[in-house]
Protein backbone atom coordinates (compact mmCIF):
# COMPACT_ATOMS: atom_id res chain seq x y z
CA UNK A 1 0.00 0.00 0.00
CA UNK A 2 1.10 3.58 -0.53
CA UNK A 3 1.91 5.83 2.37
CA UNK A 4 -0.77 8.14 3.67
CA UNK A 5 -0.06 11.73 2.62
CA UNK A 6 -2.19 14.76 3.27
CA UNK A 7 -4.15 15.50 6.46
CA UNK A 8 -4.66 12.34 8.53
CA UNK A 9 -7.97 11.23 9.98
CA UNK A 10 -6.23 10.02 13.14
CA UNK A 11 -3.15 11.48 14.83
CA UNK A 12 -0.89 10.33 17.66
CA UNK A 13 1.27 13.04 19.20
CA UNK A 14 4.30 11.88 21.18
CA UNK A 15 4.98 14.92 23.31
CA UNK A 16 1.41 15.98 23.84
CA UNK A 17 2.15 19.37 25.41
CA UNK A 18 4.62 20.56 22.74
CA UNK A 19 3.57 23.95 21.39
CA UNK A 20 4.67 22.98 17.89
CA UNK A 21 2.82 19.68 18.08
CA UNK A 22 -0.36 21.32 19.34
CA UNK A 23 -0.25 23.98 16.63
CA UNK A 24 0.10 21.16 14.12
CA UNK A 25 -2.78 19.23 15.69
CA UNK A 26 -5.02 22.31 15.58
CA UNK A 27 -4.25 22.84 11.92
CA UNK A 28 -4.92 19.22 11.05
CA UNK A 29 -8.14 19.13 13.05
CA UNK A 30 -9.30 22.17 11.07
CA UNK A 31 -8.76 20.10 7.91
CA UNK A 32 -10.01 16.56 8.50
CA UNK A 33 -8.36 14.99 11.54
CA UNK A 34 -11.04 13.59 13.83
CA UNK A 35 -9.18 11.50 16.41
CA UNK A 36 -6.18 12.78 18.33
CA UNK A 37 -4.13 10.90 20.90
CA UNK A 38 -1.94 13.09 23.10
CA UNK A 39 0.85 11.08 24.70
CA UNK A 40 2.73 12.79 27.49
CA UNK A 41 3.27 13.05 31.18
CA UNK A 42 -0.10 13.18 32.98
CA UNK A 43 -0.93 16.53 34.49
CA UNK A 44 -2.82 19.80 34.08
CA UNK A 45 -0.86 20.82 30.96
CA UNK A 46 -1.80 17.63 29.12
CA UNK A 47 -5.42 17.95 30.25
CA UNK A 48 -5.60 21.57 29.06
CA UNK A 49 -4.15 20.65 25.69
CA UNK A 50 -6.71 17.88 25.27
CA UNK A 51 -9.55 20.18 26.26
CA UNK A 52 -8.59 22.83 23.74
CA UNK A 53 -8.43 20.33 20.89
CA UNK A 54 -11.72 18.77 21.94
CA UNK A 55 -13.30 22.23 21.78
CA UNK A 56 -12.37 22.29 18.09
CA UNK A 57 -14.44 19.17 17.49
CA UNK A 58 -11.85 16.41 17.73
CA UNK A 59 -12.20 13.18 19.68
CA UNK A 60 -9.21 13.63 21.98
CA UNK A 61 -7.71 10.95 24.20
CA UNK A 62 -4.66 11.10 26.43
CA UNK A 63 -2.16 8.41 27.32
CA UNK A 64 0.69 8.47 29.83
CA UNK A 65 4.04 8.53 28.04
CA UNK A 66 7.57 9.15 29.30
CA UNK A 67 10.43 9.47 26.81
CA UNK A 68 12.85 8.47 29.57
CA UNK A 69 11.11 5.15 30.17
CA UNK A 70 11.74 3.25 26.92
CA UNK A 71 10.79 -0.07 28.51
CA UNK A 72 7.20 1.20 28.63
CA UNK A 73 6.98 2.45 25.05
CA UNK A 74 5.83 -0.77 23.44
CA UNK A 75 2.96 -1.21 25.89
CA UNK A 76 1.91 2.45 25.80
CA UNK A 77 1.90 2.77 22.02
CA UNK A 78 0.44 -0.69 21.63
CA UNK A 79 -2.55 0.47 23.64
CA UNK A 80 -3.13 3.32 21.19
CA UNK A 81 -2.82 1.22 18.03
CA UNK A 82 -5.08 -1.44 19.54
CA UNK A 83 -7.89 1.14 19.50
CA UNK A 84 -7.73 1.51 15.72
CA UNK A 85 -5.57 2.64 12.82
CA UNK A 86 -3.34 5.68 13.32
CA UNK A 87 -2.71 7.63 10.12
CA UNK A 88 0.07 9.82 11.50
CA UNK A 89 2.49 9.76 14.40
CA UNK A 90 4.11 13.09 15.29
CA UNK A 91 7.29 12.60 17.30
CA UNK A 92 7.56 15.99 18.98
CA UNK A 93 9.03 15.53 22.44
CA UNK A 94 12.40 16.97 23.35
CA UNK A 95 14.22 19.26 25.75
CA UNK A 96 16.45 22.22 24.96
CA UNK A 97 18.54 21.98 28.10
CA UNK A 98 20.85 24.72 29.34
CA UNK A 99 24.23 24.51 27.62
CA UNK A 100 26.26 26.21 30.36
CA UNK A 101 24.77 24.14 33.18
CA UNK A 102 24.78 20.94 31.17
CA UNK A 103 28.51 21.30 30.51
CA UNK A 104 29.17 21.64 34.24
CA UNK A 105 26.82 18.82 35.23
CA UNK A 106 27.23 15.85 32.88
CA UNK A 107 24.14 14.07 34.21
CA UNK A 108 22.04 16.98 32.96
CA UNK A 109 23.63 16.59 29.54
CA UNK A 110 22.89 12.87 29.61
CA UNK A 111 19.24 13.64 30.32
CA UNK A 112 19.07 15.87 27.23
CA UNK A 113 20.64 13.14 25.11
CA UNK A 114 18.46 10.41 26.61
CA UNK A 115 15.27 12.38 25.97
CA UNK A 116 16.02 13.75 22.52
CA UNK A 117 17.81 10.74 21.07
CA UNK A 118 17.49 7.52 23.07
CA UNK A 119 13.81 8.05 23.87
CA UNK A 120 13.12 9.02 20.27
CA UNK A 121 14.88 5.94 18.89
CA UNK A 122 12.79 3.70 21.12
CA UNK A 123 9.45 5.41 20.44
CA UNK A 124 10.25 5.86 16.76
CA UNK A 125 10.98 2.19 16.19
CA UNK A 126 7.89 1.08 18.10
CA UNK A 127 5.68 3.51 16.17
CA UNK A 128 7.26 2.58 12.84
CA UNK A 129 6.63 -1.11 13.40
CA UNK A 130 3.01 -0.45 14.34
CA UNK A 131 2.49 1.69 11.23
CA UNK A 132 4.12 -0.97 9.08
CA UNK A 133 1.93 -3.69 10.61
CA UNK A 134 -1.21 -1.76 9.69
CA UNK A 135 0.17 -1.15 6.19
CA UNK A 136 0.05 2.64 6.01
CA UNK A 137 0.77 5.88 7.82
CA UNK A 138 3.19 8.75 8.27
CA UNK A 139 5.83 9.26 10.94
CA UNK A 140 6.73 12.94 11.26
CA UNK A 141 9.87 13.64 13.29
CA UNK A 142 10.64 17.10 14.66
CA UNK A 143 14.37 17.62 14.25
CA UNK A 144 16.14 21.00 14.19
CA UNK A 145 18.60 22.99 12.12
CA UNK A 146 20.85 22.55 15.16
CA UNK A 147 21.37 19.00 13.88
CA UNK A 148 23.24 20.27 10.84
CA UNK A 149 26.45 21.40 12.51
CA UNK A 150 27.78 21.60 16.06
CA UNK A 151 27.74 25.11 17.50
CA UNK A 152 29.54 26.28 20.63
CA UNK A 153 26.30 27.69 22.00
CA UNK A 154 24.23 24.48 21.91
CA UNK A 155 26.35 21.51 20.91
CA UNK A 156 24.81 19.21 23.53
CA UNK A 157 21.28 19.81 22.26
CA UNK A 158 22.53 19.91 18.66
CA UNK A 159 24.34 16.59 18.95
CA UNK A 160 21.19 14.92 20.28
CA UNK A 161 19.19 16.31 17.37
CA UNK A 162 21.90 15.26 14.92
CA UNK A 163 21.55 11.70 16.16
CA UNK A 164 17.77 11.90 15.89
CA UNK A 165 17.94 13.37 12.40
CA UNK A 166 20.28 10.65 11.13
CA UNK A 167 18.15 7.97 12.75
CA UNK A 168 14.96 9.31 11.17
CA UNK A 169 16.53 9.53 7.71
CA UNK A 170 17.75 5.95 7.96
CA UNK A 171 14.39 4.78 9.25
CA UNK A 172 12.75 6.44 6.27
CA UNK A 173 15.02 4.51 3.93
CA UNK A 174 14.32 1.27 5.78
CA UNK A 175 10.56 1.80 5.44
CA UNK A 176 10.60 2.95 1.83
CA UNK A 177 8.10 0.92 -0.19
CA UNK A 178 6.28 -0.44 2.87
CA UNK A 179 3.44 2.09 2.82
CA UNK A 180 4.95 4.09 5.70
CA UNK A 181 6.19 7.61 5.00
CA UNK A 182 8.82 9.23 7.23
CA UNK A 183 9.21 13.01 7.13
CA UNK A 184 11.94 14.91 8.97
CA UNK A 185 11.11 18.51 9.91
CA UNK A 186 14.01 20.92 10.55
CA UNK A 187 12.80 24.21 12.03
CA UNK A 188 15.09 27.07 12.89
CA UNK A 189 14.62 29.00 16.12
CA UNK A 190 10.95 28.62 17.10
CA UNK A 191 9.42 31.34 19.27
CA UNK A 192 7.61 29.46 22.06
CA UNK A 193 7.15 29.78 25.78
CA UNK A 194 10.18 27.53 26.24
CA UNK A 195 12.44 29.83 24.21
CA UNK A 196 11.03 33.15 25.43
CA UNK A 197 14.18 33.76 27.48
CA UNK A 198 16.38 33.48 24.39
CA UNK A 199 17.00 36.11 21.73
CA UNK A 200 15.45 34.90 18.46
CA UNK A 201 17.99 34.37 15.72
CA UNK A 202 17.69 35.21 12.04
CA UNK A 203 14.94 33.36 10.15
CA UNK A 204 13.15 32.51 13.39
CA UNK A 205 9.68 31.03 13.10
CA UNK A 206 6.52 30.23 15.06
CA UNK A 207 4.70 27.01 15.96
CA UNK A 208 1.96 27.95 13.49
CA UNK A 209 4.46 28.35 10.65
CA UNK A 210 5.96 24.97 11.45
CA UNK A 211 2.47 23.47 11.47
CA UNK A 212 1.74 24.94 8.03
CA UNK A 213 5.01 23.51 6.70
CA UNK A 214 4.18 20.08 8.13
CA UNK A 215 0.80 20.06 6.41
CA UNK A 216 2.32 21.13 3.10
CA UNK A 217 5.04 18.50 3.45
CA UNK A 218 2.43 15.80 4.03
CA UNK A 219 0.52 16.86 0.93
CA UNK A 220 3.69 16.77 -1.16
CA UNK A 221 4.96 13.52 0.33
CA UNK A 222 8.18 15.30 1.33
CA UNK A 223 10.95 13.48 3.14
CA UNK A 224 12.62 16.61 4.56
CA UNK A 225 11.01 19.95 5.42
CA UNK A 226 12.92 23.11 6.37
CA UNK A 227 11.13 25.88 8.26
CA UNK A 228 11.46 28.47 6.89
CA UNK A 229 12.51 27.14 3.50
CA UNK A 230 15.29 29.73 3.21
CA UNK A 231 17.21 27.84 5.89
CA UNK A 232 18.07 25.06 3.46
CA UNK A 233 20.63 27.01 1.36
CA UNK A 234 21.84 28.90 4.44
CA UNK A 235 22.60 25.70 6.34
CA UNK A 236 24.21 24.17 3.28
CA UNK A 237 26.71 27.04 3.26
CA UNK A 238 27.29 26.85 7.02
CA UNK A 239 27.72 23.09 6.92
CA UNK A 240 30.60 23.44 4.45
CA UNK A 241 32.22 26.52 5.97
CA UNK A 242 35.83 25.94 7.12
CA UNK A 243 35.94 25.25 10.83
CA UNK A 244 38.23 28.20 11.61
CA UNK A 245 35.74 30.52 9.91
CA UNK A 246 32.69 28.86 11.45
CA UNK A 247 34.07 29.45 14.96
CA UNK A 248 34.06 33.20 14.34
CA UNK A 249 30.52 33.38 13.01
CA UNK A 250 27.76 34.72 15.33
CA UNK A 251 25.70 31.52 15.17
Automatic annotation (TrEMBL):
Transmembrane segments: none annotated. InterPro entries: KR_dom, NAD(P)-bd_dom_sf, Sc_DH/Rdtase_CS, SDR_fam. It is an enzyme of class 1 (oxidoreductase). Belongs to the short-chain dehydrogenases/reductases (SDR) family. Coiled coil: none annotated. Its EC number is 1.1.1.333. Keywords: Oxidoreductase. SUPFAM superfamilies: NAD(P)-binding Rossmann-fold domains. NCBIfam families: PRK07904.1. This is Decaprenylphospho-beta-D-erythro-pentofuranosid-2-ulose 2-reductase. GO terms for molecular function: oxidoreductase activity. The keyword Glycosyltransferase does not apply. Residues 9-195 form the Ketoreductase domain. PANTHER family: 5-KETO-D-GLUCONATE 5-REDUCTASE, DECAPRENYLPHOSPHORYL-2-KETO-BETA-D-ERYTHRO-PENTOSE REDUCTASE. PROSITE patterns: ADH_SHORT.
